[in-house]
Design a protein that fits this description.
alpha/beta, 8-stranded mixed sheet, two-stranded parallel sheet, 13 helices, 12% strand, elongated
Length: 365
């Protein structure tokens, strides 16, 4: 659940000195007389350990929902691999399915070239062989997007959260606050969208749900709100300060410049901040995700992504395209989201994501 967190390893515990059983106040859970009585008993044969109930595989429910969310793509791909032979028709159908999945022409061409190389080199013969080869290629491509957040590098940490209107930015902040509170971290929120009362009210509601304070101003300057929040975080020794920002389109030059200003103000309030510049992406926007990442990265130097709404009409291929186009300098996908619930935000796993794309959705009985 919390694989996204990276912590320093604690020092090895110092062994406690073993005290005599007869010494008052010793660590023994029984009286000395009981110990003597036990020592007098004949040795008993070792007992086999009691059988334990099989544990449910972790994240089973999450993976099931992820597969359901990406079922449009897996439904397109699953039927292709049932073929008993590999021919040009298979590659043509695979190309069409990947393009429909929002993978894009450049990434699809690259994937098919790698797949053809594997088929030739490994002498693959069946459609199932091709599925496993594509699985390995996609997993290798997406694995660099996995990364934890290091919560121990600074205190407070400042996270600046950006995104276009309707991407789920404020909701994602609330879910992040929930995850951090479950990790016993103190959190402070800054309502940087100063022109929309509804945004401030939504953030205040999330703050109340998570027992987290919110710094806000009615119609004030977003930079001033960010500065006040970071200053308050320093004074209160808060672990994480999250700064919400107004939703904006990358084409709105004046709003993107305002975003740069907020980033500069945060840096003046605390040297080295923001420690995370996050972009929230709507998983249904397809190839437009790539343009958003490029624009926001140029404005605030992104450190991580959150992809939301993968439970709707999202096809998933745009994340593959993002991994391919930025494979030289990948931006981690810290989280993906499937719904509105507080637990509907989970750490991104390349292996789970590829499985949801390529494996058929199990039928419910």
């Amino acid at each position: 659940m919390f694989g996204f967190l990276r912590r320093k390893k604690p020092p090895p515990p110092t062994p406690e000195p073993v005290e005599s059983a007869s010494k008052p106040g010793g660590p023994w859970p029984v009286e000395p007389a009981s110990i003597a009585a036990q020592a007098a008993r004949p040795p008993q044969p070792p007992q086999p350990p009691a059988p334990s109930a099989p544990a449910e595989p972790p994240r089973t429910g999450w993976i099931k929902r992820l597969r359901a969310g990406l079922s449009r793509t897996s439904g397109q791909l699953a039927g292709l691999f049932g073929l008993t032979q590999i021919d040009e028709a298979l590659f043509e159908q695979l190309e069409a399915a990947l393009l429909v999945a929002d993978t894009g022409i450049e990434t699809t061409t690259w994937l098919l070239a790698r797949l053809r190389e594997r088929v030739k080199k490994e002498r693959l013969e069946t459609g199932e062989d091709v599925r496993q080869a594509l699985r390995a290629t996609l997993t290798e491509l997406l694995t660099p997007l996995e990364a934890p957040i290091d919560l121990d590098r600074s205190a407070p940490q400042v996270w600046m959260v950006t995104g276009v209107n309707g991407a789920g930015k404020t909701t994602s902040i609330g879910k992040l606050a929930h995850l951090l509170r479950r990790e016993h971290k103190s959190v402070l929120l800054a309502a940087g969208d100063t022109f929309r009362a509804a945004a401030r009210a939504q953030l205040a509601e999330w703050g109340a749900r998570n027992d987290v304070a919110v710094i806000a101003q009615d119609g004030g300057d977003p930079g001033a709100v960010a500065f006040d929040a970071v200053s308050a975080g320093i004074a209160r020794q808060t672990d994480v300060v999250m700064v919400d920002t107004a939703g904006r389109l990358p084409t709105q030059t004046h709003l993107m410049e305002e975003l740069r200003k907020v980033r500069r103000v945060i840096g003046k309030a605390l040297a080295g901040a923001p420690h995370e510049a996050l972009l929230v992406l709507d998983g249904n926007t397809g190839q437009n995700m790539l343009a958003q990442v490029a624009a926001f990265d140029a404005a605030v130097a992104l450190t991580g992504l959150i992809v939301t709404k993968l439970d709707g009409t999202a096809k998933g291929g745009a994340i593959v395209a993002l991994a391919h186009t930025r494979r030289v300098q990948p931006i981690p996908v810290y989280f993906i989201g499937l719904g509105e619930g507080v637990d509907d935000l989970q750490a991104f796993s390349a292996e789970e994501f590829v499985s949801a794309l390529l494996d058929p959705t199990p039928r419910s009985h």
